[in-house]
Fold this protein.
Amino acid sequence: MTEQRPTVYTTVEEIRAATADARGRGDGIVLVPTMGALHAGHRELVRSARELGQTVVVSIFVNPLQFGPSEDLDRYPRTLDADLDALAGLADLVFAPSVAEMYPDGAPTTRVAAGEVGSLYEGASRPGHFDGMLTVVAKLFGIVQPDVAVFGQKDAQQVFLVQRMVRDLNLPPRRVAVVDTVREADGLALSSRNRYLDEAERLAAVTLSAALTAAASAASRGADAALAAATTVIDAELAVKLDYLVVVDPATFLSVAADHHGSGLMLVAARVGTTRLIDNARITLD
Ligand code: PAF
């Protein structure tokens, strides 16, 4: 038997009415914000969402505000039909608005400012990215009013900033749930951008997760040793151009001192061909 596709709404008014109905029935609303081009990692987010509430809403919106002028907004994959198949039997409602529906007056004058952490790492390479991301997430939270929102650990800095925004601005949801990164068998983190990689680039792309594994093994000797181990792996693959490699304190998202002990999060970003990939892993520093 074929599983049922979710019901799709394209206007704010419609999704508000649908979520209000669900709330009226006593359902907890769980939102999974996405930009579409769904893969097994997204499906894992949606499966987790199912365990956290009764009505699962997936938003699919390629948000122009979070792309820089030289980034891949135009070529970002838009695959709504395949996305709805991928969500069949998993999600109840899909909110897939147009740009005009989300930004009827053009680019919004009021935006969320991501602050200091928003200007580091991904934010340093992609100025304005996190302000644009938080602005659309705040809008989605306002529209859907979820009890729980689900994000993937692969975008660790995004998760940190969303949790911070929810706390700082007292926005719904009451909980931001985080789901572990889903990986290919060789360790490559799933990403909608992996589809840009040709065969040779796909092989080289595993370097990011391999570097994180090497760092985790060296972490008992401290942050510098972990960074050195990861750098050695990345430098050995000429097709991978490192953007940043850093160990942050998961509590503050600021770079750790060399003598930091305990929990750390290693972040890596690199370009493989023309494709920019990110990954991260928790490491324990002694
Ligand atoms: O992670 C993403 O896909 C996007 O940044 C998000 C959270 C859907 C906001 O556009």
Notes: Residues 129-144 form the longest helix (16 residues). The pocket of pantoate is lined by residues 33-35, 63, 66, 133, 136-137, 155, 158 (CB under 6 Å). DSSP finds eleven helices and nine strands in the chain.
